[in-house]
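Bug #77: duplicate submission created two jobs. Keeping one. Sequence:
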Amino acid sequence: MIHRLRAMGPLEIARRVSLRVSDRWRWKITAAEASLVARRGHLHRLVSRPLFAEESLAGQADLECCREVIDTAREIVAGRIPLFGRLLDCGPAVDWFEDPLGSGNAAGKKRLPAWSERYGQVGFDVRSIWELNRLQFVTVLARAWQLTGDEDFSRAAVNYLISWHEANPYGRTINWTNALEVALRSLSIVTALNCLRKARACRGRRFRQAMARLLFLHAEYVEGHLSSPSSGFNHLAGETAALAVLGSALPTMPQARKWFATGSGRFNRLIGELILEDGGGLEGSLHYLALVCRLAVFSDLVCGRLGRKFLGGPARERLRSAYEFLAEATDGGGSISELGDSDDSWLPGPAPSDSRRRYGAGLNLLWLAQDGQELLHEFSPDPDSLWLFGGERARGKAAPAQRVKPSAVRRFDSSGHYVLRPSAEVYLRFECGHWGDGRTWGHAHADRLSFSLFVAGRPIFIDPGTGFYLSDRAFREYFRSTPAHNTLAVDGDSQSDALAAFLWGDPIESYLTTLEEEPDRIVIEGEQTGYRHGCRWRMGVVHRRRITAWREIPRLEIEDGVQTIVSHEVCLNFHLHPSCEIAAGGGETEPVQILSGPVRLKLVPDGRLVTSLHRGQEEPRLGWYSPAFRQAVPTYQIRCRTGTDSDLTLHTTIEWEAT
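Kept job's structure:
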């Protein structure tokens, strides 16, 4: 607790306490004001014009691309709701306080601990409950009605909105305890109401008054509970973006100008912090960088079509840089190895089930939003790009565009990531440098000097993902630890001390020392000094890693140097994608033969290392991969260990062939 309070600082602590005290009387005043506001027809602008392009899709090809929207909407009408990339049976009458994944029920719970690290103590996974209450699935119903005119979809959407409104009186349920959740839900409601503006079920005066009241309450809550510095970042981005959208969509409401000015002003300042100069993310997370970019593009489009300018010139330049970074960090959307935390947050609808589709759709929006931007990824229209930009613009812009040939080396020094392509079939990403937000490092993983490797488009050595936040603390600690990444761990510990679910003890310092392009090879080297921090016997350990990627020879050479004067166990970890199998080897001194489709690899550790294979192990937890949030599947983890009490240099070779 003391570490979290120290990260907050006295001003933030005072603000949180004052909000707790003032909320007890503010709820009643705001609710009374909302009842008066609701009677004045404030939804007129929101329901008088189309904000999205679904009504002008360009022909049968676009409609077929959106077929998934209609199919998913039918599932929702039947009570099966898409959450975290899968359909979950929530029944004909949704319980808004039940975790769809079974951790418990939050009915009657009105408050939560003051910061998210303690949410796990309440006895259920509030993150999963909040995912349901973002109401993003309602936008699927609204879009399906636009595409088909089927009143079953519009009635179901209206019924869900009314049900939520009646079950969640302002300030009296757990769904009014987090400003980001309120903000994302407000974007869902705005989107659904605009799509349903011509539906019979949406035209009733009482329904529109109820929705005006609900949106007013959402805006007032977000404006009064903007995230504090230690928990801001992507949270604050979502909150300020929602404020700007609400201020644009509801211009006749009393505080609308203030909402828009606060939201747009703070978002434009924030995006210059969250997106670093080279396009990488401040938080050390690939997913949250993509989420911030998606928030920016979506909010800019909606505000623009409502007559308001949301993004300024500097913010647009950062989005251009972010597009380049995300395209390189995912090899154009085709080679996904996560970096830092990912909880599959999305907007305005539910997240796609596959990570390649998520990042591909995000790259589509970023590219379509930028004029004159070179195409750096494989563009294929997705339902969101057609919906937001229109089929004519999306397909028209993509038709003459050719993807720019990627460079053999791309360096992102500000954000600490490096991409190597020694040949056409090899993609390698190396993590070294900037690490996290500089206050709690809450969404960063202890992964310095780790690498990801794809061969012939096949994922081989990858980041294991995130898995869980609060519902399984053991998995939370495993997935973000150093032993769960493709780097060297000392005594089985991480490069920094994990003090809480979203709090590290010290920064992990790492530096790039060499990056050389030669005719026959590319050499990259970095140094990591994270183990120097803290009162630990391992302090003073320095890890240096040098990777040589040959251009003509299908081989990587990895040299790991350890500097120490105290006895330690050092362990090299290699995490395979679940699609990989162990074909042979894996004994204590044997090379490991790896098979992934047509690609065959051989991992040859240093002769002084003892090798062991682990897959789906519980104690200690080893050999797991998370394909999506709140999912964990077994995969192979190769561990190569030895002890040392002096300086040590280890040599590992990876060779492959693709048939």
